[in-house]
Amino acid sequence: MTSLVVHTFLLSLLAAGALSYEINTYNPDYGVYVGDLSSPESDVSGQVFIVNATTLQIFNLTFTPSQQDLYFWLDTKETPTKEGIKAHTYEYGITPLGPFPEENDRVVVHVPEKLRLDDFKSFSIYSFKTDKNFGSLVFPENMKIPKSVSLNSEFTGKRYKLRSGPLYVIDRRTIKVYGFTFEGNKAPKTYFYAGRGASVSYSSGVKVAIRGKDEKEISEISENYRGGKDIILELPENYDIFHIDWISVYCYKYRVNFGSVVVPTDDTLANLPPYVPSIKRNDEEKPMSRGVLKGSAERRNFTFQIGHIEHIKNYNGNLRSPKYVWHVNSVMSPDLYLMRNVTYNFNVEGGRDKMFPDFYNPLYIGDDEDGGYSELSQNEAEKVTIYSPGPVDNNTGPLCLWMHNQDKTANEPKTYLECDGWPEDVHSFAFTPNETTPSVLYYNSGNNFNMGGRIFIVDELPEDVADSAEVPYNREKWHTLALSRQRADKVNGAKTTIAAAFMVILTIVLC
Ligand SMILES: *[C@@H]1O[C@H](CO)[C@@H](O)[C@H](O)[C@H]1NC(C)=O
Ligand SMILES: *[C@@H]1O[C@H](CO)[C@@H](O)[C@H](O)[C@H]1NC(C)=O
Ligand SMILES: *[C@@H]1O[C@H](CO)[C@@H](O)[C@H](O)[C@H]1NC(C)=O
Ligand SMILES: *[C@@H]1O[C@H](CO)[C@@H](O)[C@H](O)[C@H]1NC(C)=O
Ligand SMILES: *[C@@H]1O[C@H](CO)[C@@H](O)[C@H](O)[C@H]1NC(C)=O
Ligand SMILES: *[C@@H]1O[C@H](CO)[C@@H](O)[C@H](O)[C@H]1NC(C)=O
User: Which of 296, 300, 302, 347 has the most ligand 3 atoms within 8 A of CB, as the residue to mutate?
Assistant: First the structure.
């Protein structure tokens, strides 16, 4: 009898644990809870909280990307449809979702520019191509949205020209100070200082970091702030705006309050966004620097082939690295400098086999940095202007692949070229930038994201930018893959496209 009672009690505890957040209720640590991402058909789960009008965050997300085209998705319908739009993450931008690093305790999701979460009805993980829902939730009616708060108080003091515009509480631990003015270069050992109690005191305070200046440790203010810029204060861990009564510009040396602001105790701050740590890149994650090709009188032709980048660390500096990237005249995804009123030839050899998405790469020039034009939702595609001629899908050619020479001996080149197709299949188009062409464009693949690089449109080529060395290549291996495909065709007759394609892959792997 007792054990039954205990058992029931435990069961109800478990149930309470699973539902410990109430829908549309504010939680100061996480934001407003709007539900769990879940679906009977997939193993997706996670608790979703609204941070502010343009951001939400998911905790304890379990998600194994089971296919290539999954996205976080916002929709005006209660379930995801093709009319919805992608939501972005730091890790993947607008590109398809892959696995998130295990050490991430949260995934932060952003709404595209000019839109707000309350423009939508549902949030999901969605496959765009197969129109399949991998887990979703419907936003509650009258969804509460945490809001940053402007305080009506400013810093002002008699010494060292201390002044500021109003303070803006972005979230629980982040405070913006508009137009900060202070002769930090003259003031002795001064810090931003925050603490509890009716008045500013040395013993009840703690130093506060300035974003951008105090990333590793908090140092005294030594800059002469002239009011021309805003600064952002970050309260230390374990502190937040609800647990301080004042913020001071405080002289540590002589224990003097140069000027302070009182934090309101009424419910003005009741609905503040939770603190979301910003992702700090360390130096190792910085993207690698790109090569350069200038469109000089000797270089009017650019040949676009692809290359594997598995052996390259930090290609993009984040998880968004693609498998292959464009190589232009043998140089890996360089910046191109092209002159106005000059016609350049673009030769395309990025593969045209639709069956293998990695090897189907139409080349296009556009003002979109990430590429993947045919993978964009209608809403996203409308924002892109294309500068290459014809429909994006038309600019495809045979496959030429730069391979990394893994077991290279001293006098062999680091890379070599493999091609599958016939030289007469190479597709070319002309591109002539003119007065109206924007000064920065991008070359990309219509079918895969992040394969390209920048194109700077200039009136004169820059002299202070050095050209990268082109790697000479010969076309001896031009036919190898095509011939193996032909052989396979002969052996198995007409139904061998798949087998032949596998031969291609195999040949590439074996090479
Ligand atoms: C995520 O899971 C951990 C471990 O089960 C738990 O402690 C934490 O509270 C969960 N986070 C949220 C926001 O529920
Ligand atoms: C919402 O919160 C995120 C994360 O803290 C922040 O990056 C973004 O600027 C905020 N947006 C607004 C409109 O305050
Ligand atoms: C560019 O290629 C064309 C043939 O496609 C050739 O006639 C021309 O000489 C080349 N120009 C340069 C500068 O190499
Ligand atoms: C694009 O390719 C299709 C199919 O090969 C062809 O019919 C069409 O004329 C091409 N369009 C342009 C503008 O080149
Ligand atoms: C400049 O190029 C665009 C195509 O990108 C074309 O539509 C426009 O007519 C050109 N302008 C001039 C002045 O040639
Ligand atoms: C390009 O041509 C236009 C019209 O022919 C001319 O006005 C412009 O100055 C030229 N620009 C350059 C950089 O040569």
Answer: 300
